[in-house]
Design brief:
heterodimer, A: mainly alpha, Fumarate Reductase Iron-sulfur Protein, Chain B, domain 2, Rossmann fold, 4-stranded parallel β-sheet, B: Rossmann fold
Chain lengths: 703, 263
C-alpha cells in the first residue's frame, strides 16, 4: 500500500532526488562533528597523565547512579526534576532522531530491534517523552527569563551572562520536538484523509494535537509540510550536534565519560604526577599546575563537562562569604582559556600562559578550604580539590606563598607544628588530665594497645588541649589502654599537603609513619578529623585508624562508659559535621548516635545544611593562618544556622571546627545564647564520676 | 648589576622561647632553631628582583661557621646564583666592626655594583651595613624600602622615616643599602627548592684567602665586648591589670584617658 505522502527518501526537490540532500546533511554534520571533536581532544592529548583506566566495576556503578539514574539531580528539586525529564527525553528521542536521519535516504527504515510490539510501544513512548520535554523546555525558559535563579548569574568579573546560550539551546530542542511532531502529524493527517488512520496517537502529545490541527489541510500542503518538517529536523539535529562542543552543552556528549572517569575516593589527594612515585618526586622538573597543559586530561574533561548549573558555587562556603572563589568559574574560565588556546582553526597557542595572574588569582586559589561541598553536589562528577592542590603545588614551587602561610610552614618544617613551639612540650597537655587517668608516653618507652594521635592544635593550643584532656578521661573511663607519641609526634601534614607543600608533607609522613610503627600500637584513635583523614588516606601501611566518636560509641554500646543521670533540664544541641569526618569519610552517624545516648539533650538538625551538605566552618590547619578577603566569616554563617535550628549548644567533633565556631559565636554576638563544644568534652561532662565532681579542671562532674 | 647580599643565621625568634642562661653569658641555645635573619630575606628577594629586571647576578655571603651554610643554601634556593661562606676560626667572636672588615674584604675580591644588608639582625645591633660602607668608602643609605634603578649608575631609593613618612633620595653606585622589611614579599622556599641546590658547591674563604690581617678581626680585635645578658626586673611604673576582660578593658581606657593617651 502506497503511503499517503511521499517519504523523504523518495521525494524530489526541484527535480533532484531529495535522498542526495538528506545523505549530504548527515555526512557533512557527522564529518564536521568528528572534526570538532578531534580539535577538542587535542589539549587532552597534551595534558598530564591521569590514572583512570581502572576499577571498571565501580566506574560503571558511578555511571548507573549519577549518569543514568541522575542521582544528584533532585538535590535541587525543581531544576533536577526538569533535567531528569529532558535527560530521559533525550535518551528516548535520540533513537527516533536517529531513525529520522536514516529515513532521509532509506525508505521505511526502522532501527534494529524497534519493530513489532516494542516498536509500537516505543512510538507511543517517544510521543509522551516529546510532550514532557516540551513542557519542561517551556518551564526552563520561563525560569531562565522570568525567575532568573541567582545561581545562574554571572558576576561582572567573570564575563558575560550565559542566558542567551541557554535560551538558544532550549529553542533548538523545541524545534526538534515540533519538527518531529509535524513530520509525524502531517502523515497521520494525510492518511486520515484517505480514510485509513494509522496507529492511534497518545492523547495530549504533539502529533496528536498537530494531526488534529492539520485535519483540513490539503494533501499538497501536507506533503510540503512533511518534507519541510523533515528538513528542519535534519538541519537542526546536525546544527545542534555541532553546536554542543562550543559551550556548556558539551556535557551532553562528555558527561557519560566524565562520570565514568570521576574521582572515586573522597578525601584523597592526587599524586603530584600520575606514574611518578614518591621516590621520583625529586627528579621532577616542575611541580603542580602552572599552565593549562599541566592539568590532567580528566581535569580538562571536567572543564568541557561543566554544565554551568552553579550548584557547586551555590554550596561553596568560600563563595558564600564573598571570598574571591567560585568553583563554577574555575571551570568556566579554564574552558574559555582552552577554547582560546586551542582554536578550531589554526595552530594551538605555542607560548605558555601562566594560570596564576592570568585566569586565576593567588587569593582565589588559597580561598578554598577543600571542604568538598562542590564535588559532593556536582551532578557530573567534576572535581575541584585536586585542581586546587595542583595549582597550589605550582604556586609553592614558584615561591608564591603569602607571608601569613610562610611562617607556619617554616615552623612546621623546623619544629613539627605551625606555631614553632618546642617539640618537648608537645605532650605537656597530659599534665591537665587530672587524677585517675594516666596517659602513657610511647616516647618514654611505655607500651599501649592504642595510639592516640593528637596532632598539633590539640597538643599545643590552650583551648584545644581541653579536647585532648577530655578525650583522655573518656578513654580512661572506657578502659582503653592508650598512649601518645609526645615529642615524637609531628604535625600530620594534612593541610601542608593540601596547601601544596608536598615535599614537606612527605617528610612529616615519613617521620610519623616511622614513629607510629615503632610504637607497636595495634590501632590508632584521633580526635582530629584532619589527622584522621591524613592517616587513613594520605599515609600507607599504618594500623587501623578510628575517630574518637566511633570508639566512644562502641564503649557506650558495650556499657563500658557509665553516664551520670542528668539532673538539670534538657538542652537543645545540634551536631556540626566536620568536612573531613563527614563528606570526606562518610562518618555521619557515629557522632550523632553518641549524642543521642547522652542524657539531658535534645538533638536537632540544621536541615538542608547537615551531613553531606554541611557548611564548612572556615577550614582547618594552615587555613587558620591564612588571611582571606571575605565579607563575613564562614563560622558566623554556620553559628547562625545552628541558632536558627533552635540549638543552644553546637557540638563539633574537630578542634578546628571548635576554634572557628567559638570565634564565630563571639563575632556574631551570640555569647550566652549559643555554646560550642567538642564531642569528647560533651561526653566527658556527662561521665559518672565516682565520689562526685572529681573531674580534673572542674568542668566535668555531676552536672 | 652584580649584587652582593650579606646574610646572617640567627635564632628564629618566632619559633623559640628565648631564655637567658643563668650565668648571663648568652641565651640558652640547646633547643633553639635557626633561620635566615628576617631582614636579610627581604634584601635577597630585592636583589633577585633587581637582577631579574636589569640582568646581572646575586651573590649571598655570610660570616659564620659551617652551620651557617644552611642559610646561604636557602637563599640560593630563593634564586641567588652564588653563595659565599666567610669562615675561619680567626673570625670567631668578632664585633660589628670585625664583621664589617671581613665583608669588606669579600666585597673587594669581587666586582659588585651594589651591596645589600638587612637593616638589622634579630640578635644584632644594626651596625654592620653602615660600617661596611664606611670601610669601603661607598655611599650608604639605611632602612631602604624602595629601590628604582636609574640610568647612569644611580639608584632612586625610598627610606622609611619617623611616622611612616617616606624620604626619596638618589644614590650613586656602587653603594651599600640596608633593607627594611616590607620592601617586597619574599618568595617561599620549600624543601624541594633547598634540595635542588643541595649539591651546589659553595666556596669558603678564610682570612688568608681574603687577605685579611687577623689582628683586625676576631675576639681579640673587639672594641666592644658583651658583659652580661639579663631579663630586666619589672619596673616600678608597670602595672598588671587584673579582672575580667571587660573590667581590664574599662580600666585601660580610664588609664589612657587619665594619662592623656586618649582624647
Amino acid at each position: 500500500m502506497e503511503p499517503a505522502l511521499i517519504p523523504p527518501a523518495a521525494a524530489t526537490l526541484a527535480g533532484f532526488p531529495a535522498r542526495l540532500v538528506f545523505l549530504l546533511i548527515p555526512a557533512v554534520g557527522v564529518g564536521l562533528f568528528a572534526w570538532i571533536l578531534r580539535r577538542r581532544i587535542e589539549p587532552l592529548l597534551r595534558a598530564a597523565p591521569d590514572d583512570r583506566f581502572n576499577r571498571y566495576g565501580e566506574r560503571v556503578a558511578a555511571v548507573l547512579r549519577l549518569w543514568l539514574a541522575q542521582a544528584r539531580q533532585p538535590r535541587y528539586l525543581l531544576a533536577g526534576v526538569l533535567h531528569i525529564v529532558v535527560f530521559f527525553g533525550f535518551l528516548i528521542l535520540g533513537a527516533r532522531s536517529l531513525q529520522l536521519v536514516v529515513l532521509g535516504f532509506v525508505e521505511g527504515f526502522v532501527l534494529p530491534g524497534f519493530g513489532g510490539a516494542f516498536g509500537a510501544a516505543y512510538h507511543a513512548a517517544k510521543d509522551v517523552a516529546a510532550a514532557a520535554v516540551l513542557v519542561a523546555v517551556v518551564v526552563l525558559a520561563v525560569r531562565r527569563l522570568v525567575f532568573r535563579p541567582a545561581r545562574y548569574a554571572v558576576p561582572e568579573r567573570y564575563g558575560k551572562d550565559h542566558t542567551p546560550e541557554a535560551i538558544l539551546v532550549l529553542g533548538l530542542i523545541a524545534t526538534l520536538l515540533v519538527s518531529e511532531g509535524l513530520f509525524e502529524a502531517s502523515l497521520v493527517a494525510a492518511e486520515r484523509q484517505l480514510g485509513r488512520p494509522l496507529q492511534g496517537l497518545v492523547p495530549l502529545t504533539l502529533p496528536w494535537a498537530l494531526a488534529a490541527l492539520l485535519g483540513g489541510v490539503s494533501r499538497e500542503a501536507l506533503q510540503a509540510l512533511h518534507l519541510a518538517a523533515y528538513t528542519v529536523h535534519d538541519l537542526t539535529f546536525f546544527f545542534f550536534l555541532c553546536f554542543l562542543p562550543f559551550g556548556k552543552h558539551f556535557h551532553v556528549v562528555t558527561s557519560l565519560f566524565n562520570v565514568f572517569f570521576m574521582r572515586l575516593d573522597p578525601g584523597t589527594v592526587k599524586p603530584v604526577r600520575h606514574g611518578v612515585g614518591e621516590a621520583g618526586l625529586d627528579a621532577l622538573e616542575t611541580f603542580g599546575v602552572k599552565r593549562f597543559e599541566d592539568f590532567t586530561w580528566k581535569h580538562m574533561l571536567d572543564f568541557y563537562s561543566c554544565a554551568d548549573c552553579g550548584r557547586c558555587s551555590d554550596r561553596c562556603p568560600a563563595n558564600r562569604v564573598g571570598r574571591p572563589l567560585s568553583p563554577r568559574f574555575v571551570s568556566i574560565k579554564a574552558r574559555d582559556l582552552c577554547f582560546r588556546r586551542y582554536p578550531l582553526r589554526g595552530r594551538p597557542a605555542a607560548e605558555p600562559e601562566p594560570l596564576i595572574g592570568g585566569i586565576y588569582s593567588e587569593d582565589e586559589i588559597w580561598s578554598c578550604t577543600t571542604c568538598g561541598a562542590c564535588e559532593e553536589e556536582c551532578p557530573l562528577g567534576i572535581e575541584y580539590i585536586d585542581k586546587m592542590v595542583d595549582l597550589r603545588r605550582g604556586m609553592v614551587d614558584d615561591g608564591l606563598v603569602p607571608q601569613s602561610l610562610q611562617k607556619p610552614l617554616a615552623a612546621i618544617e623546623k619544629r613539627g607544628n605551625p606555631w614553632g613551639k618546642m617539640e618537648k612540650k608537645r605532650g605537656d597537655w597530659v599534665l591537665g588530665v587530672g587524677e585517675g587517668c594516666r596517659v602513657k608516653g610511647f616516647d618514654k618507652g611505655e607500651q599501649a594497645e592504642v595510639l592516640y594521635f593528637v596532632d598539633s592544635i590539640t597538643s599545643y593550643d590552650d583551648r584545644m588541649q581541653k579536647i585532648a584532656q577530655a578525650a583522655a578521661r573518656v578513654f580512661c573511663a572506657a578502659g582503653l589502654d592508650f598512649g601518645i607519641l609526645g615529642k615524637d609526634e609531628k604535625d600530620s601534614g594534612h593541610e601542608v599537603r593540601r596547601f601544596g607543600e608536598e615535599m614537606l608533607f612527605q617528610s612529616l609522613k615519613e617521620h610519623n609513619t616511622e614513629a607510629i610503627r615503632a610504637s607497636g600500637a595495634r590501632w590508632i584513635v584521633t580526635t582530629d578529623p584532619h589527622a584522621y583523614n591524613a592517616l587513613r588516606k594520605d599515609y600507607r601501611d599504618l594500623p587501623p585508624v578510628r575517630h574518637a566518636s566511633e570508639v566512644i560509641l562502641e564503649a557506650l554500646r558495650a556499657g563500658r562508659l557509665a553516664l551520670a543521670p542528668e539532673a538539670d533540664g534538657v538542652g537543645t544541641c545540634v551536631y556540626h559535621d566536620p568536612c573531613y569526618l563527614g563528606r570526606h569519610n562518610r562518618l555521619y552517624d557515629a557522632p550523632r548516635q553518641v549524642i543521642d545516648r547522652l542524657p539531658g539533650l535534645r538533638r536537632v538538625e540544621m536541615e538542608g545544611n547537615c551531613r553531606d551538605r554541611s557548611f564548612c566552618c572556615g577550614g582547618g590547619g594552615l587555613m587558620l593562618f591564612y588571611e582571606p578577603e571575605e565579607e563575613m566569616r564562614m563560622g558566623v554563617v554556620r553559628v547562625k544556622m545552628a541558632r536558627e535550628a533552635g540549638a543552644d549548644l553546637v557540638v563539633a567533633a574537630c578542634p578546628f571546627c571548635l576554634v572557628n565556631l567559638e570565634d564565630a559565636i563571639k563575632v556574631a554576638g551570640l555569647e550566652g545564647e549559643l555554646e560550642a563544644v567538642d564531642l569528647c568534652e560533651l561526653v566527658d561532662r556527662k561521665l559518672a564520676r565516682p565520689g562526685g565532681p572529681g573531674a580534673a579542671n572542674g568542668q566535668g562532674g555531676m552536672a | 648589576m652584580n649584587i652582593l647580599v650579606c646574610v646572617k643565621r640567627v635564632p628564629d625568634t618566632a619559633e623559640n622561647e628565648i631564655e637567658v642562661r643563668p650565668d648571663g653569658t648568652d641565651i640558652r641555645r640547646e633547643d633553639l632553631v635557626y633561620s635566615v635573619n628576617e631582614w636579610d630575606n627581604y634584601a635577597v628577594e630585592e636583589a633577585i628582583q633587581i637582577a631579574e629586571r636589569t640582568g646581572g647576578t646575586v651573590t649571598v655571603a655570610t660570616v659564620g661557621d659551617a652551620d651557617a651554610e644552611e642559610v646561604v643554601r636557602r637563599e640560593m634556593a630563593m634564586g641567588a646564583q652564588q653563595g659565599l661562606m666567610l669562615t675561619d676560626p680567626a673570625f670567631e667572636g668578632s664585633d660589628g666592626r670585625g664583621v664589617a672588615e671581613i665583608l669588606k674584604a669579600a666585597v673587594q675580591r669581587g666586582r659588585y655594583d651594589l651591596v645589600l644588608c638587612g637593616a638589622q639582625a634579630d640578635d644584632g645591633a644594626g651596625q654592620v651595613g653602615g660600617m661596611l660602607a664606611a670601610l669601603l668608602d661607598w655611599p650608604y643609605a639605611s632602612l631602604v624600602n624602595r629601590i628604582e634603578v636609574l640610568e647612569g649608575q644611580r639608584l632612586r631609593i625610598g627610606r622609611e622615616i619617623e611616622g611612616g613618612n617616606q624620604e626619596v633620595s638618589e644614590i650613586e653606585l656602587p653603594c651599600v643599602l640596608s633593607i627594611q622589611t616590607g620592601i617586597n614579599e619574599p618568595r617561599y622556599v620549600g624543601i624541594r627548592g633547598i634540595r635542588k641546590v643541595a649539591s651546589v658547591e659553595i666556596p669558603a674563604l678564610g682570612a688568608s684567602e681574603l687577605g685579611l690581617d687577623p689582628s683586625r678581626v676576631g675576639r681579640a680585635a673587639c672594641r666592644v665586648r658583651k658583659l652580661d645578658y639579663f631579663v630586666p626586673p619589672a619596673g616600678a611604673g608597670a602595672e598588671i591589670l587584673q579582672g575580667s576582660p571587660e573590667e581590664i578593658a574599662a580600666r585601660l581606657v580610664d588609664l589612657l584617658k587619665a594619662k592623656g593617651g586618649l582624647k
